[in-house]
């Protein structure tokens, strides 16, 4: 099985040196390069989140620019009724500072995720992801793939762990990575 990557406009906010938001949203159709329309079913990430896999947070899918990881506790992931929520502590590195500055300005394109599908349903040009092995989530600096999520910047003065806000939202079209 081949690892696939999907990018999407997501809700991201900064809280000090943290980013929070959604790396994927459920039941939100995406045109995957004109080849098929894809949706993610609720629970698609459940096996990965229960497993002992080390999931990374990267910049633009680049394994040389690690932002956080589940093994160290600097990346936290959870499914809720909306999708795959994330909360990550940004490192004090050049790319960590760049991501923070871009997120605070509203210039981050969105989020993406790298996965291998192990349970999917196809019907003509429609594909539903029902179960995936999640390898990584990525901050996408340019164009994301899935619609329906938004990006936020927040300061440390307004902490709200793992909650998402709808003010100052930026909606961006998705694009396959």
Automatic annotation (TrEMBL):
Molecular functions (GO terms): peptidase activity
Domain Prohead serine protease, residue spans: 14-157
UniProt xrefs under Pfam families: Peptidase_S78
Segments forming a coiled coil: none
Keyword tags: Hydrolase, Protease, Viral release from host cell
Single GO biological process annotation from the record: proteolysis
InterPro entries attached to this UniProt entry: Peptidase_S78_dom, Prohead_protease
Domain of life where this protein originates: Bacteria
Matching NCBIfam families: proheadase_HK97 (TIGR01543)
Name of the protein described by the UniProt record: HK97 family phage prohead protease
């Amino acid at each position: 099985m081949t690892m696939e990557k999907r990018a999407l406009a997501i809700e991201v906010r900064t809280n000090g040196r943290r980013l929070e938001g959604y790396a994927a949203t459920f039941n939100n159709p995406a045109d995957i390069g004109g080849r098929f329309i894809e949706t993610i079913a609720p629970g698609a990430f459940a096996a990965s989140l229960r497993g002992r896999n080390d999931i990374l947070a990267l910049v633009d899918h680049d394994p040389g620019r690690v932002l956080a990881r589940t093994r160290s506790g600097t990346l936290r992931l959870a499914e809720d009724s909306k999708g795959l929520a994330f909360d990550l502590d940004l490192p004090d590195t050049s790319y960590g500072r760049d991501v923070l500055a871009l997120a605070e300005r509203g210039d981050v394109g969105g989020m993406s995720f790298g996965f291998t599908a192990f349970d999917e349903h196809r019907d003509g040009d429609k594909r539903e992801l029902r179960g995936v092995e999640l390898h990584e989530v990525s901050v996408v600096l340019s164009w994301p793939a899935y619609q329906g999520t938004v990006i936020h910047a927040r300061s440390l003065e307004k902490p709200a762990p793992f909650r998402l806000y709808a003010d100052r939202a930026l909606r961006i079209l998705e694009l396959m990575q």
